[in-house]
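note to self — DONT lose this again. spent like an hour looking for the file last time. sequence + predicted structure for the chain T wanted, 154 res
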Amino acid sequence: MTLPSERNTGWPRLAASAAIFRDGQILLGERGKGAMAGLWSLPGGHVEPGELARDAARREVREETGVEARILGLVDLHEVIERGASLPGQPSGDVAWHYVIAVHFGIWIAGQPMPADDCRATRFVALSDLGNLPMTHGALALIERAQALLQRHG
């Protein structure tokens, strides 16, 4: 049995992201660092202590893309867990990272996408073109759910 003091108590970590829509398009960022570099995803990042997940989603969209957005609601919680020897010296099977991402949806207010922070590139992509981009696991399904919620929101 592993005692709590022996476990990596830094996991899971809370993050927030947002599916931001404008004229039948979705705002995406191409990851520029880490294991997911080169994959397209919803802009997002860590929730800071004392910050609401909704506010973190809006802040991360602005920091990563330069776009101002109105957050309308929550799509779901999405978990990303990586196991194995992803980090040097880490035994196989141990948790390398575990994020719980509060995925929101909203609409564009102002600004043109400009890559910043962790993004190599950012742009609005036609929903019909999403199949042409290499995307992070689960992103397409979350975008589809966000689009359905946006349509119901009116």
